[in-house]
Amino acid sequence: MNARVLPYVLILPVTLFLCLFFLYPFLLVSKQAFSTGSGFTLDNFREVTSYWKFPTTLRNTFLLAAAVVPVQLALALLMATMVNKMQKGRDLILYVWTIPLGISDLAAGIIWLAIFEQSGFLNSMMNGLGIVDKPVNLLTFQNPGLVFLAIALAEIWRATAIMLVILVAGIGLIPKEYYEAAEVFGASPWKRFTRITLPLLRPSLQTALVLRVILAFEIFAVVAALGGTLFPVLMGETYAYQFDLLNSGAAAAMALIILAISIGFTLIILRLLRVPKGATI
Amino acid sequence: MTFYSKILGAASGLAIACTGMAAQAETLFWSTQAKPVEEAQAMREQVLGGFEAGVDYQPNDGGPWLTRLNAELQAGSGTIGVLGALHGDFSAMNPDDLVDLSDMGVMSASGTFNDLAKLGTDSMQYIPWMQASYIMAANKDALQYLPDGADINALTYDQLIQWAANAHEAAGEPKFGFPAGPKGLKHRFFQGYLYPSYTNGVVRTFASDEAVGAWEAFRKLWEHTNPASTNFSFMQEQLLSGDAWIVFDHTSRLAQAFNERPDDFVAFPAPAGPTGRGFMPVLAGVAIPKTAPDMDAAKSLVEYMLKPETQIATLRATNFFPVVDVALPEDLPPSVKAAGDAVAKMSGSADANPGLLPAGLGDKGGDFNRVFVDSFERIVLAGQDIRMVLDDQKGKLAAIMEETGAPCWAPDAPSEGACPVE
Amino acid sequence: MTSVTTDVAAPDARKAGKFVYVTAVVLLCAWVLVPIYFLLINTLSSPDTVNSFPKPFWPEFDLGSLTFFAGFAGMLTALKNSILVAGMTMIMSIVIGAPAGYALSRFDFRGKELFRLLILLTRAFPLPLLALPLAVMFIQTGLDDTVFGLALVHTTLAIPFAVLITFSLFSGIPIELEEAAWTLGCTRLTAFTKVVLPLILPGITASAIFAFVISWNEVFAAAVLTIENRTLTAFLLQNLDTSPLHLKFAGGFILVVPALIFIFAVRKYLFAMWGIANR
């Protein structure tokens, strides 16, 4: 088969599949965002963006993504390189590190709430060590910083594994000779990491970052469990419009705003970490 | 060859799955109530086990519940036989989507409930199924801090605030608990308890001077409220853990505390304010969507739900009280006894000021709640000026009332047309 | 002089480095495992203990909460449905997704950027909003309430992962490798199956893990699209947050275990480092 047609044949199944099960319902839903009963309108967008909580939800979502994603990236890179040079017990350690992957966000929220709540494990521990003489209230409206920290920690715990698995699979493809050669020339481990691992891992880094950033803007369950009503995020507001206020137009508008933000960041990442067609030796 | 046989196998598998669906005999009971796993199990085994044709009881979160229902209505065919939900869920629906149940021959013993169930039409859109209310509960250890001369069964808001303050001082941390979490029912407290008790109204008096007084009182109470309350949705958890000593919540959201440690807690009526002891009921109903696959089975299930024995079994399973006249047996779970006593004292008190459920709001019920929740977040959490917030939110409330044309409900004085915000 | 000191210092530095390394591994393991351990403690505690303070740091092996779920009607069927849906999702997302990943990495074609955007869009829009039109479509076509229908929706969620992961791994494999195979008489297809496919086994494994856990943990579509054939997640998880604490933890635990078993079973394929890496 010739090289002009082949790519289209290869992407045909995905395209058909997504048109049927994603694009079709997506277009139906998006249409609602631009109508309030009659004709084309931007009223829904005006309504959701003028709601007094909107700037807060937007800020919270951004702050959280900005705090969580870089840490996750660094942590995932560190874990991936560590596990890669391990001689024994490698797959066991890797297994342990990927465990949070199997835990849904709802369950993760339950687990971390059990740690941070007033009579939770963290207070029990501090109590046992004599740091505090009675349980302190951590997740309250007076310490928004702590609430933010708790949510960020839970998110880092839960979702670092997503990046880790992608990076581990990618790191395995980097030829060992490069490292051996670098060692012969006396390159320090840090040099080897920045000059070999990072550039050659670019395709995987790109994928991991894109997927993680998109998911970061959709964060909801963990935030709801730990932040309660104190830390509204975009996705929570979307669900509130859809299921509490029964305003599917406004919900669709919110979802499209999230989508636009995600796409924007995705394009930035794709540009920064451009991947050439097929790596060359 | 093998590939072909695989496809054949897959196709036949699909066919079996499809016929499995068509042969479904049980009536699907699609409910937003009795969701906690234990309650759902009790509904299946103790309440619905006696229905001979068989019931598939499926409780769901509001989101999936509504999505599935709307999908079936849009598709014009469905599997849901009977719907179980709150009055507010039904009033958000288009009455045409529900089957007229006027000629069923069953209804609740309360004329008010039956009127509510008509959803503004001339016919019964749903049948009242079970009822509950909101009450107060406290750890018995906290009783010693009750202010002098206060009767726990006839508290005023001032006394409650003083009590919470005393407990705060004694414990060294605030011990009042309030369900202000994401799934908490805080809006019902403002609509059915605080406003009626201070302003003798909800909509008309929303931005009155008395309302400013009500919010000032609540601010004082909040000073003695566990600041983690914005995470609390089921106060039974905080009662049991000791994070809160005095709490307000839905009777069924306090049940676990009374059932696990019946001797440690006490239930009592909500407090009274200058205009009486405001309180409001919770009403759940059963209805049949027009897409029900087997109308006769669905109707007989609705009838079954209203039978006295079923109503008592439901009470045991869910802590929701019967809506038909029935003598309650002696051997009820501790939670039911405690809640029943508290509700009886509340409605029997000399200064009782019962409110009704919001009616006529249609699908704006959520927006109506949001007005109160936003006021709470701005006044109490963000510390904004009360007068300014109320004047600001008043416009939103007025717009909702005008758009829906909903007339006033008790304790607001009746209105011609849409209930005005004064 | 200097050379002597470095000679002496080097083993020390190496030792110190090793120590730091091992400590880091242990700490990271603890970071992951301790929260899980807390979940285990609460699962194996009586309701009283779950609500007590201070919390114990050793499970008391009270099986009450787990036994409750053992008696829960329909658990086994739900478990079977969950496994079926997750398995189908896994196979479909890889079979459909991997060719597209290959195309993205090897060819420049018109509409490539548009295609890539479509893939990403899929992940950036919340499923609960899409569930209504999907459910209407499924009811009308008879896919409603079937394991296969739900697997189709979950595949939609898993496909972006499958396409992008396989894309990034194909991109990491030098095209010269394939070209060499062609010159040695392989066709495009045999070059692919004999040279490239073994190399991206880790990628396939990673995609499989994602597809499995995405499907396993998905609640909303499962709750809306299955009635008779409920999955375990739809059966348990969506009602957990309104349940008493001790059942919350036990239910959460029951959901976690099968996913962990699956990841454990496939973990070593993530390191299928034959071929290029060991040349």
How are the SSEs ordered, and which strands pair?
The complex is a heterotrimer of chains A (281), B (422) and C (279).
Chain A: H1 6-33, H2 43-50, H3 54-84, H4 90-98, H5 105-116, H6 121-128, H7 144-171, H8 176-184, H9 189-200, H10 202-217, H11 221-227, H12 234-244, H13 248-272
Helix pairs in contact in A: 1-13, 2-13, 3-7, 3-10, 5-11, 7-10, 7-11, 10-13, 12-13
Chain B: H1 2-22, E1 27-31, H2 37-47, E2 55-59, H3 62-75, E3 80-86, H4 87-91, H5 111-116, E4 127-139, H6 157-171, E5 176-177, H7 186-199, H8 209-223, H9 235-241, E6 246-250, H10 255-260, E7 265-268, E8 277-279, E9 281-287, H11 295-306, H12 308-318, H13 334-348, E10 352-354, H14 365-381, H15 386-404
Parallel strand pairs in B: 1-2, 1-3, 5-6, 8-10
Antiparallel strand pairs in B: 3-9, 4-6, 4-7, 4-9
Helix pairs in contact in B: 2-12, 6-8, 7-8, 7-14, 14-15
Chain C: H1 2-43, H2 47-50, H3 64-70, H4 75-106, H5 112-124, H6 127-141, H7 147-172, H8 175-183, H9 188-199, H10 201-217, H11 220-225, H12 232-240, H13 245-266
Transmembrane segments (chain A): 5-27, 61-80, 92-115, 146-174, 209-231, 251-273
Family (chain A): Belongs to the binding-protein-dependent transport system permease family.
Domain ABC transmembrane type-1 (chain A): 58-269
Account of the protein in words:
The complex is a heterotrimer of chains A (281), B (422) and C (279). Chain A has a single domain, classed as MetI-like (MetI-like fold, Orthogonal Bundle). Chain A is 73% helix and 0% strand. Chain A has helices at residues 6-33, 43-50, 54-84, 90-98, 105-116, 121-128, 144-171, 176-184, 189-200, 202-217, 221-227, 234-244, 248-272. In chain A, helix 2 crosses helix 13 and helix 7 (144-171) runs antiparallel to helix 10. In chain A, 50% of the residues are buried. In chain B, 54% of the residues are buried. Chain B is built from 15 helices and 10 strands. Chain B folds into 2 domains: 2-131 and 282-336, D-Maltodextrin-Binding Protein, domain 2 (3-Layer(aba) Sandwich); 133-281 and 351-404, 3-Layer(aba) Sandwich (D-Maltodextrin-Binding Protein, domain 2), CATH 3.40.190.10. Chain B is an alpha/beta fold and 422 residues long. Chain C folds into 2 domains: 2-65; 74-278, Orthogonal Bundle (MetI-like fold), CATH 1.10.3720. Chain C is built from 13 helices and no strands. Chains A and C meet through helix 1, helix 3, helix 4, helix 5 and helix 6 of A and helix 1, helix 4, helix 5, helix 6 and helix 7 of C. Chain B: Pfam families: SBP_bac_1. Chain B: Residues 1-25 form the signal peptide. Chain B: It is found in: Periplasm.
